[in-house]
Amino acid sequence: MGHTGVWAMSQAMSQAVWATRARPSRTCEPTRSEEKLRDGFGLDSFFLSYGSVFIGFSPPLVDGTLSTACRTYKGSLKADPLIEPPSMVVNTVLSVMAYDYPPEKLSIYLSDDGGSDLTFYAMLEAANFSKTWLPFCKKFRVEPTSPEAYFRTASEPLNDADNWLSVKILIDGRDSNAVDIEGNPLPTLVYLAREKRPQHHHHFKAGSMNALIRVSSRISNGPIILNVDCDMYANNSKAVKYSLCLFMDEKKGDEIAYVQFLQSFDNLTKNEIYASSFRVLQQLELHGLDAIGGPCYNGSGCFHRREALCGKKYEKNYKVDWKKVSDTKADESASFLEETCKVLASCTFEHNTTWGKEMGLIYGFLVEDIITGLNIQCKGWKSMYLSPERDGFLGVAPITLLQTLVQHKRWMDGHLQVFLSRYCPLLYGYKKIPLKLRLAYCPYNLWAANCLATLYIVVMPCLCLLKGISLFPKISSPWVFPFAYVAFVHRAYSLNEFLWCGGTFRGWCNDQRMWLFNRTSAYFFALFETILKLLGYSRLNFVVTAKVADKEALKRYDGELIEFGATSPMFDILATLAMLNLFGIFGALKKVILDEDEDLEVLEKFGLQILLCFVLVTINLPVYQALFFRNDNGKMPSSVTYKSIIFAMLACTATMCF
Length: 658
Ligand SMILES: O=c1ccn([C@@H]2O[C@H](COP(=O)(O)OP(=O)(O)O[C@H]3O[C@H](CO)[C@@H](O)[C@H](O)[C@H]3O)[C@@H](O)[C@H]2O)c(=O)[nH]1
Ligand SMILES: [Mn+2]
Prior knowledge:
- This protein has helices at residues 3-21, 64-72, 86-97, 117-140, 147-151, 204-219, 239-247, 279-291, 306-309, 322-325, 334-344, 368-378, 401-419, 425-428, 435-445, 450-467, 480-500, 505-534, 551-558, 569-594, 599-619, 621-629, 638-657; strands at 43-49, 106-112, 167-171, 188-192, 224-229, 232-234, 256-261, 263-265, 302-305, 382-386, 393-395.
- It is an alpha/beta fold.
- It folds into two domains: 39-398, Spore Coat Polysaccharide Biosynthesis Protein SpsA, Chain A, CATH 3.90.550; 446-544 and 564-657, no CATH class.
- It starts with a helix and ends with a helix.
- Bound molecules: uridine-5'-diphosphate-glucose and manganese (II) ion (MN).
- It comes from Gossypium trilobum.
């Protein structure tokens, strides 16, 4: 069997393993009666935003990372100059403030990693607005509790002024005046913009999470921490109680370090043009992980046990007395707390400490969530996966192809980096987590490496077809059967799985296209960059996923038209490969038509190769459309068109000559 077969087979097998592991989704009926939870105990929720800084202005606190992000996304930011708009952050915060949970036990922290005054004032507004919003939610049992999602109306622009603060307790839950218009207490609300300086690495999201862990421990010290990214909002106000039921479970609760919720997105189109729902991964594979030790930590929509997140090892007889932990709020004045917290959020605080190594989220990886989750599991803790009927959290999936590819590149870069580091699950997890779980991490870790096999399959059969080298058995040979079987069964399996998880047939086709696009461009660059990093030629760079696009692009997104519209080396690759396979088909046609007497012989010899080229061309149809037939701003830039034609011709000529 050729490379193709072996590779397809291994893929099919890994999926089959998943299927046997998977079990029906856990229903979320609380395992313990809700009454016991009525009083609740302290709960801290963290929000992360990278700030909303106008491009063009250069605020002193923004460092290279953000400007890189802005540059990368310039193409899609023509109309709206913000990548994480404050209105989005505010909605996320409000959605959680309105949880169906005793507000006096709830503390909410926002990390503003852009250090932007705009976000700060937006938070002030949010604090004010919450006084009316919370009673409203309660009275009318509003769901979702994010005002934006609830009303779907635009928010008012905010005046900006120049006043920057690092830690500010906007609502002090201990204050008896902090009440809504009906006199009910409000949750504590804290704004944090940690200190950042060019000489000190800020460690991206992991750094801001760790700053939040410290600051919150000083103010409210909730034993459970909820982490939500600013591009998600709470969609099920029972989520806190659901997860607490797991943590407080009398038998198994004490060994759980984190409860990860399934992540859903509220801006997906019917057929998920960029395959961003991760349907099968979330509905099948993560449940599979749940059965063999626990799901990975996915960065958002996750409840953590503070102690475990802070590096505590699980000990056999570890038992939490929930009554004791419930009331540990500081009794100093708010302004005093603000002052003392500034030290905790300063950029030098972590020097000579184990923060980022043994405590808090782990530094040095682009998938800080995965590595932190793995590390926690390796300390003896279990994790749990929850997918309630009503989604716990809803987020924003990328709306352009480039945003999607850039996000995938970061993830896969991070994953491969984990595999090649001392944290490689196979070795690091030895004797700490089950072999099954160690193996289960590997397919994700090695996704980037998968690009080589994919590139081979896209380039070689086509070039060999042009050159007249036959790679597969003749059509009439019985050896065609294993190829056909593997290819067919593997795809049929994948389709079935996709439909089973609630997808549409066209959604599956789009998924297949994105599979190809990601593996030939994003994963290839991820592999390349990981190697450069290993050799010391490249530095870690967290490119924040842009969360907005201009109106026109949004319209095209809703119409499920793929958005190219920018120059990127990734598009050069995609277009070149598409052209190459088109040439392959032309070459094959020429052979069949011109060599009249031989035509059957050509089909006999190259049948499978021609078929493969044909499938690739079909998958790439939207690329040809974007290269040659579209007029909107989302079409492929003409420079990419020229480049792809030239590169593909060069490749063909070179093959013919040598
Ligand atoms: O220096 C930084 C960079 C990012 N963020 C925040 O981190 C979150 C995630 O960033 P985003 O650009 O939205 O990344 P995604 O691609 O959506 O992130 C997914 O993958 C990341 C790991 O690559 C995880 O950290 C995320 O939780 C997970 O949602 C956002 O709230 C950002 O505001 C910071 O606070 N500081
Ligand atoms: Mn995100």
